[in-house]
Design goal:
There is one protein chain. The protein starts with 5 loop residues before the first strand and ends with a helix. It is globular, with a radius of gyration of 16 Å. The model has no long low-confidence stretch (mean pLDDT 93). By secondary structure, it is α/β, with parallel strands linked by helices. Helix 4 links the parallel strand 4 and strand 5.
Length: 150
């Protein structure tokens, strides 16, 4: 099984959680330890980017996500930045031909969401949004109540 080389954009609280998850995927699914590779990280400050790269075990770091998107070895990006930054980064990532995994909520409004969907469709890239609470028992129960008209 081959995974794309991932570029992390943002490495605050949720970015670190995603980084830890990438490390645990091979153990969880019985894959070779090097099956999932983070190839670079971009944050807003050089010192935080360099520290993130050291923690993730990747060689490339930058304070400009455009530099990460320009790297040919990066095949997919994991966008873990504040919500108001999602649209610009998703559109830029799609234009760079990178597959996209974005934290929720995807957009602040319908127009931003439509812009991102159109950019991904034009580029022909795969997209995914995290929705990690979807199968929590309380969320499933809330869904049942809503479906029942409660």
């Amino acid at each position: 099984m081959t995974f794309p080389t991932i570029g992390m954009i943002g490495y605050g609280g949720i970015g670190r959680v995603h980084g830890m998850a990438y490390r645990s995927l091979p153990f969880h699914y019985g894959l070779p330890a090097d099956a999932v590779r983070v190839g670079g990280v971009a944050t807003t400050r050089p010192e935080s980017a360099q520290a993130a790269a050291a923690e993730l075990g990747c060689d490339f770091w930058t304070a400009d996500y455009h530099e990460l998107l320009a790297r040919p070895e990066i095949e997919a990006v994991d966008i873990c930045v504040p919500n108001h930054l999602h649209a610009d980064i998703v559109v830029a990532a799609a234009a760079a031909g990178k597959h996209i995994y974005c934290e929720k909520p995807l957009a602040r409004n319908v127009a931003e969401g439509q812009q991102m969907v159109a950019a991904a469709a034009r580029a022909g890239v795969k997209t995914q949004m995290t929705f990690n609470f979807r199968f929590y028992p309380a969320v499933l129960r809330a869904r049942q109540l809503i479906d029942a008209g409660f």
